[in-house]
Amino acid sequence: MKKALVLGAGGFIGGHLVKRLKSEGYWVRGVDLKRHPYSYIPANEFIIGDLRDPKVVELVIDENLDEIYQLAADMGGAGYVFTGEHDADVMHNSAVINLNVAHESVKKKVKKIFYSSSACIYPEYNQLDPDNPKCEESTAYPASPDSEYGWEKLFSERLYLSYKRNYNLDVRIARFHNIFGVDGAWNNGKEKAPAALCRKVAETPNNGTIEVWGDGLQTRSFLYIDECIDGIRKLMNSNFEGPVNIGSEEMISINDFAKMIIKISTKNIQIKNIQGPEGVRGRNSDNNLIFKSLGWKPTQPLSIGVEKTYHWIYQKVKNKEADDLWEYESPNNGSTIYQKKIGSSTYKKMS
Ligand code: NAD
Ligand code: GDD
């Protein structure tokens, strides 16, 4: 039985990856600062630990591992990585994790390691025209990412590649382009546009208005999580090391994307464009290299993943609204905690 270690297993992509590896018959150890908030993943072992601490990394990486998937990072959507407020933490936290992991992987002679880089490494000067962004892998240099998050990713790509050159670390590197889907961040300040816009639409009553950052003409492509996991597994099973894009080529403006979500909701909702953190003006995956190297590229239409994601977030919003109707109250002043529905005499006993 193959043994895999998923770093960042309490996160969005890590959680889905654990499930996939388990379904393929792997023995899986997951590590994260926290448990997964939504998916109760049957990892064989789940260790709560801080990968900035070299002792934790020493503990979780052992000689018996066949594969490591390094997904742990301090990251979020435009509202987290493009405001400038978290730059020092993002650079420090993620770089220290990667320094620890690369070093320990060589020490323990790990057979293969996957590193999750990002489309944010591409130079800003290639992403100024929203209708014609250039994100071919070979255009990464001269480097000029528009965020510190992108610079750290570029540094860590180079870190893993130098461990390959000097110590034969067998590495695979993917540059993810905005991955979305169920079980991802949707309301904690780290959510990306797909989850944020689904949440805004789900929360807004019929004939209401949602706020969308920027003029809405900026473009992106979004890849549904299932195809992202397919791409990771195909890359890992190949002899191609990358760096290679894993993303969708279905580019869309943010306002058109919001309209797609509104249509799925069947509500009548208007869009109000407001100032907000925007990131690059245009971005789209270029899938020539992945198709040439692996004979595979994502093909699922965007609307299919958006439909699933909207309904998942709609349920979350509804459940939260229902929860908000309950307030803690102990009617008999005893030790039992009850919840009382506001404005009614109904009590719900808490377990
Ligand atoms: P995520 O935030 O859901 O998952 C990252 C996980 O890493 C989190 O659960 C977090 O708690 C964990 N982590 C952070 N610091 C840690 C530490 N010190 N010790 C242990 N765990 C720690 O993000 P995700 O969307 O699942 O992304 C996974 C990886 O893919 C990240 O490296 C991210 O930068 C990269 N990526 C993601 C996207 C995307 O669109 N989701 C795009 C480009 C790159
Ligand atoms: N998050 C968010 N929330 N974005 C919004 C919103 C909103 O309510 N309204 C409009 N947007 C716009 C942003 O201004 C940005 O121009 C665009 O939607 C996409 O935003 P995000 O999905 O948050 O981020 P991104 O695509 O710019 O970058 C993300 O993807 C990269 C990989 O492609 C980030 O998660 C990066 O960390 C990641 O590496």
UniProtKB/TrEMBL annotation:
Pfam families: Epimerase. Keywords: NAD. Residues 4-247 form the NAD-dependent epimerase/dehydratase domain. InterPro entries: Epimerase_deHydtase, NAD(P)-bd_dom_sf. SUPFAM superfamilies: NAD(P)-binding Rossmann-fold domains. This is NAD-dependent epimerase/dehydratase family protein. It comes from Lutibacter aestuarii.
